[in-house]
Amino acid sequence: MNFDLSEEQRMLCETARKFFAREFPLARLRELESRGWDAFMPVYRKMGEIGYLGIAVPEQAGGSGGTWIDLALFAEEAGRALVPTLQITSVVLSGQAVLALGNEAQRARLPALLTGEAVIAPAWIEATEASREPPAVRMATRGEAIELNGAKRYVEGYAPASELLVSARDPADAVRFVLVSRQAAGIETEEVQLTSLDRVHHLRFAQVPVAPDCVMPADWNAWLRIIDAAKIVAAAWSIGAARAALEMAVAYAKDRKQFGRPIGSFQAVQHRLADAAIVLEQASAMVRYAAWLCSSQGSCPREAAMAKLVAGRAVRLVTHAATLTHGGYGFMEEFDIQLYFRRAKQFEHLVEGPVLQRELIAADSEDLLRAR
Amino acid sequence: MDFAFSDEHRRFREEVREFARAEVTAELFADMERRESEFHPGFHAKLGERGWIGLQWPREYGGRGLDNLHVSIFNEEMEYRFAPISRCRTSVVFVGQSIIAFGSEEQKRYFLPRIARGELTGVWALTEPDAGSDAAAIRLRADEQDGAWLLNGEKIFTSGAQDADYVMVAARSDPKAQSKYNGISLFLVPLASPGLTVRPIKTIGGWSVNQEFFDNVHVPNWLLLGDKNKGWQNITRYTLNFERAGIARTGMLLRLADELAGIVRGSPGAGARQLRHQLAELRAEIMAGRWLGYRVAWLYDQGQIPTSESSMIKVLTADLLARIADLGTDILGWAGLVRGSDAPLQGRIEFFLRSIWFHLVGGGTPDIQRNIIAQWGLGLPREP
Hints:
The complex is a heterodimer of chains A (372) and B (384).
Chain A: H1 7-23, H2 26-35, H3 41-50, H4 68-80, H5 86-101, H6 104-107, H7 110-115, E1 120-123, E2 138-142, E3 145-155, E4 163-169, E5 175-181, E6 187-193, E7 199-210, E8 215-216, H8 220-255, E9 257-258, E10 261-262, H9 267-297, H10 301-325, H11 337-349, H12 354-363
Parallel strand pairs in A: 1-4
Antiparallel strand pairs in A: 2-3, 3-7, 4-5, 5-8, 6-7, 9-10
Chain B: H1 7-23, H2 26-35, H3 41-50, H4 68-80, H5 86-102, H6 105-117, E1 122-125, E2 141-145, E3 148-158, E4 166-172, E5 184-190, E6 196-202, E7 208-220, E8 224-225, H7 231-245, H8 250-266, H9 270-301, H10 307-332, H11 348-361, H12 366-377
Parallel strand pairs in B: 1-4
Antiparallel strand pairs in B: 2-3, 3-7, 4-5, 5-8, 6-7
């Protein structure tokens, strides 16, 4: 057992923190909020150049190698800087899906995804959030041609994407993943804006033509393993954000004086922040454990759900406590803590939401105390 | 980063698990009820025979020289069966490890082998009626007289003083010291000493704690533990940290979570359907707390003293235990309020619902723990 980071992992975290401090300070995030993706895409491509986007993708597939723990540690740094989660959607979901399910020609997309030159937006949510029900979007064959009909909702990273990864049921009722050009005819879009000011898209497919070589084989279990890993990465992103918010609140509580002394010397403030620190460390331990399990076993559905659930809870509670500590300044746009608060619930719902996680954990029948 | 237990840890876990499965029986609990004590001498003696009292002590003192992960595994497996190990812990951790850290050679030779063999048990008395969270405000006097000590005063809320052999007592030996943190000394006092009376105080949580009255209790000088007037420094530097090094409560949490999950799965009722998600969330939190616990134990093994994280574990696990007992009652309904071993889960849910205070308050209230986290961990300024 060893809870320490390796020398390489320490270096990775340190350089990633410096990279984001330089390339994506919170001022840049505010620019993203007002200007959109243009403010981020150059940073994203630099992440690709350095090899960050390729972490946990095998080197023979063009990735940087490394384990899910490495990626989780990197994600903590990205979350700390509130870096948009395009890497999760375009690489950890779409890229890993192409890698796991795709044939050689389909996998040829991977290098461009890993340099950040190309983006694939996964489109798999159909209701109000992700579920494990088979998709209602249908793949129909019309002679030689294949077409898609149906709708997807809450598609993240749509605007910078060149392609979509769409889950659909084929005529034999098997679940397939289909790569569709974003420019394909028959896609109708509606843009909605979230609390974070992120823009996501609802898509409607009406007889959208699909090239036969863009259909990937059915392997629902492989997709679930990808979802599990992506949840751990999203959980780590949340942990990083929560940690930064707590640090911000602690710094403010030391600095801000009322009644002639720092508000951080009041027990009421101390206890609120102590509770925030507890849920954060608790969740952080779970996320790192799940990342390790995912690395060493390749699959850990229950622990991935647990990690996602407790990390979502942590980022929600910690950012709330941190914002409250700022009093009136907490919800003024010009102060930075609100940037964290406005993303907390989104982190909690990222990839898969808390309701589904509770259901997945409740459905698991294995005892918590196992021999390993 | 590697969360895998070593083969040695795994083998040890199997060994403890087998033992607990065989030895922690319904008769054992019935016997404890009859004797009205959380301590079971027969069970304790078996721990001694196995060589499990003093796992973390150096071999030269009769210990096994094992790391805190072993201790954590031992606690977890024993607690998963609700085994009576609290006296083992007070004897090994408070008395034994304190003696190892700052006791005399004579004390080491006398106490440690006897504790390890299970022949001698010890408990720890710090709290006084007017010194609770402000623990350094103790007033029990220790006066030096003719090369020995006379103790006068009282202690309260001491677990186990009713049937232990020795009590480790913090006393004020220099009333003229400038600060309340100076002038405190520690003593190992035989509970059979003339002038020492033990009055049981019934708790709502099943077992009694005790109040001890010291009336000119004569303590020979060789039982002064550590340097004179340096007691507080030794407690805070060593004793309180030893207490926190092995994980506690997670075994019970895992067990209750597993038992309740089984009940909810097998129940077609609306209540179970509604509560299964709350239970799922609690299971996730318990699992997370478990790994924070192992991290803290491991940090101690690396020679670090993670004061703030230790307090986090204390607050977190006690809170989780309170929450799972509360939820368990909702899952069981009235049956969750029925006392006795014939009730569902042998009455464990009912028992924890009312004995949770031992975990919340014992070893320092959650309020004090939060102060420690805020001030030592987050670096927030002390209250003026």
